[in-house]
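Sample 1 of the test manifest.
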Amino acid sequence: MELSAEQLKAFDDKGYVFLPNCFSEEEIALLRIEGEQILKADRKEVWREKTGAPRTAFAAHTFNEVFRLLVSHPRLVGPLKQYFGEDVYVHQFKLNAKAAFEGDVWQWHQDYGTWARDDGMPEPRAMNIAIFLDDVLPINGALMIIPKSHKQGVLAAGHDKTTTSYPLWTLDKDTVTRLANEAAGPDGVGIVAPTGKAGSVLMFHGNLVHASPPNITPYPRKIVYLTLCAVSNHITKFTREEWIAHRDFTPIEMVDDDALVEYARAHKSAAE
Amino acid sequence: MELSAEQLKAFDDKGYVFLPNCFSEEEIALLRIEGEQILKADRKEVWREKTGAPRTAFAAHTFNEVFRLLVSHPRLVGPLKQYFGEDVYVHQFKLNAKAAFEGDVWQWHQDYGTWARDDGMPEPRAMNIAIFLDDVLPINGALMIIPKSHKQGVLAAGHDKTTTSYPLWTLDKDTVTRLANEAAGPDGVGIVAPTGKAGSVLMFHGNLVHASPPNITPYPRKIVYLTLCAVSNHITKFTREEWIAHRDFTPIEMVDDDALVEYARAHKSAAE
């Protein structure tokens, strides 16, 4: 799959492109079931909220076949190879649970700030791909983004080690307010929260400022955040665990477009 | 003002009625300016979040002329006198700030549970009126309600004195999940978050289950929650401060419909 000229322009202008229903219900059902199993597991890659609810599962593509197929999927890898004009590798894989009632806040931040400071990534030639495993509603902790904020470069940030269980370089209130004012449309609002059915995909720039509020509803909001980096732009500092910031820069070999469907059907017949 | 037969039926079926743009921009600008002044004040009626940001200002109608006009306004008092078939008095007045970046969660609860347990209010013959002083957006901590939950009577609740600075009788996750399932529409979602411009009004039943998430945006979300009670149903236990649960059961005398506009214009000319 490739992005259209219009989608590429929107990405450069706004810092993101939203692809509703990129994966089918059959594909997403498979990912959701596997994801729920992983979030229950007691292993080092699964981090928990202060309440004990799952927060993030790292690196699931390294130990789960279904997520290996996902990170190698042509609907995700194709557009990024097109955009960067070269091969890409997996820099980071997170399955963020945003569990019903217990999913906690992710404060305002840029991801490339962390990749540069902690991982020594030379340029923001890596992109985030958010794959919705549940319906993302306005009420269940939707991801919020500030359009155009990717044009600001790396903004000054403080290292927040206390608010949640996950340390993060976060932006201050004045910066977020300024960026939201600069992005404001006629309604005065400069923050967008893309919502949609499970299977929708949001691709966004590594410098796009984003956050998400706690989830106080009974509706979980699982999103896979996959970061693919241009191979020539691989990281140079190994300060984080290798299952958080990967050190295997092998180019992704794409699987067939129907790989997830084939797996789901084979798996289903095997179970019958 | 009176509610239509259709609005009264919707209220009985769903437990709420939403009135977009009930107050004009001129009226709301006056309320917003006065409200912001009150939230800055260092007085016992103004409660703060753990961060120090304002959370709630009680009883502003007892010390501020503009809010005295609001609680006596025919667009609010008229429908309630109509619904209860008798005079009403002010049981409680809260200006909830839900401040930009700092407004904290209100957990799932019913208000009448508190009025019954703490204040000895005989029946749920009191109604909440939410008056939006800012635009309520999906992203800035919108009030969430569970339609039809007002038909459940008073549900079992636990007294939460730790989560936020305001003690509250809150419902457990299983109860909220069950109620949301019972209210679910074809999309499977049983929670509604009415959003709209400043000046919009939401009237909701004292037993309607509601909550609101933290506000992590730069957009404040001030709402006045006015509780008007049928005079014959006045409270019988005085366990809370009189400026939290009022003990003056005098029937409200309505002001003229243009009272706020008249005040705004008089005030403006005086300032010139």
